[in-house]
Specification:
globular, Aminopeptidase, single chain, seven-stranded mixed beta sheet, 356 residues, 28% strand
């Protein structure tokens, strides 16, 4: 299990900061820094460069800054271009967290200056940092999203008792319904459930290639847990593991899931297994304020923590508003829900690659 180092101060000496773009020879050094830096997240890992290129064909700019031969900061960026949704340079695209992770203020500032110049030279609409903490209050900032993170107790029963009573009844309902959970090696059960679920919500589905690439790139740090009833899948979730944290990320269920508390059981099983395996942070992930997922996570006793998405505008004159709550997308959502499922599954990956 991950142990935080005692000292993350700057290297000795007053040497010059040098910025480089990640190459194959320095991937292990990059990931070693990410593993140690408190501000880094799963979405700072070098593997995301492979995911962006292999699954979506997006160009990446994974920048790191060195001082005295030691990496002191990283910034993973992906350029996502779309006629419908604009042209963005984002850290990190398709992630809920990102931005600059650095050991010193000077390293942080150097990466920001370089990224802003890069965004200007590329002529994108905007540069977006998905920070968990505010860094640039003077810049345009979006406060649409919150995250839900909570320490896990060392004892399984203590975690169950920490769940508010009403939500705990839902978990026990799933247990009484005879649900079981098991890890899957591939996406064969996950993908049909996920595709059907996002279609019901009016959202384009990601490609099978994307999910297979995540499993391939991140190995044991990306797992699929499925809740079953009488051997049939009811709900499923793709989860990321990072240091001592567990992050359920892509979850979905069948129509039966609500009847038998499949979602409640599944997320409890993930929490129970994480506790038994020694993980200490349960990250329920991002939600938009005042939505169903926001309420669901609060019902588990998690408190919302604001996310700070900060922007450097280049060609854009205002912050982007690419999200399902934007009224201009409501017609699209309604129309998408009425598409035949095979058509939605064919067309969805061509659109979702631009929804970074």
């Amino acid at each position: 299990m991950y142990q935080s180092p005692d000292n993350l101060g700057p290297p000795a000496g007053n040497t010059e900061l040098r910025i480089h773009e990640l190459d194959a020879q320095n991937r292990s050094r990059w990931d070693a820094f990410v593993q140690e830096c408190p501000d880094a997240t799963f979405f700072h890992r070098a593997g995301w460069a492979d995911v962006m290129r292999r699954a979506f064909g997006h160009r990446t700019f994974f920048l790191y800054v060195e001082q005295g031969g030691t990496i002191v900061g990283v910034l993973p960026l992906a350029r996502v271009r779309s006629r419908l949704f604009g042209d963005a340079l984002t850290s990190m695209a398709f992630g809920v967290y990102g931005g600059i992770a650095a050991r010193t203020p000077d390293a942080f500032a150097a990466l920001d200056r370089h990224a802003c110049r890069l965004a200007d030279s590329l002529g994108v609409d905007y540069l977006e940092y998905r920070h968990r903490e505010p860094h640039y209050p003077e810049r345009p900032t979006k406060d649409l999203y919150v995250t839900f993170r909570k320490p896990l107790e060392a004892d399984v029963e203590a975690n169950m008792n920490a769940i508010p009573r009403k939500q705990r009844r839902m978990v026990r309902k799933g247990i009484k319904a005879g649900l079981a959970s098991e890890f899957d090696a591939g996406i064969e059960r996950f993908f049909p459930i996920y595709a059907a679920s996002v279609h019901r919500m009016g959202t384009p589905v990601f490609s099978r290639l994307y999910f297979r690439t995540l499993l391939d790139v991140f190995g044991d740090d990306c797992r699929l847990l499925t809740a079953t009833r009488n051997g049939n899948p009811v709900a499923t979730v793709m989860t990321f593991y990072f240091r001592d944290e567990v992050l359920p990320y892509y979850g979905a269920g069948t129509p039966e899931a609500r009847q038998v508390a499949g979602y409640d059981f599944l997320y409890w099983e993930l929490m129970r297994r994480a506790c038994e395996d020694g993980y200490r942070i349960y990250d329920f992930g991002r939600s938009k304020r005042d939505t169903g997922s926001f309420s669901f996570k609060k019902n588990w006793g998690f408190e919302p923590q604001p996310l700070h998405y900060e922007y450097h505008l280049v060609r854009a004159r205002e912050m982007p508003d690419v999200n399902p709550l934007n009224p201009k997308y409501r017609y699209f959502i309604k129309a998408w829900q009425h598409l035949p499922r095979p058509v939605a599954n064919w067309l969805g990956p061509r659109l979702s690659r631009s929804l970074g």
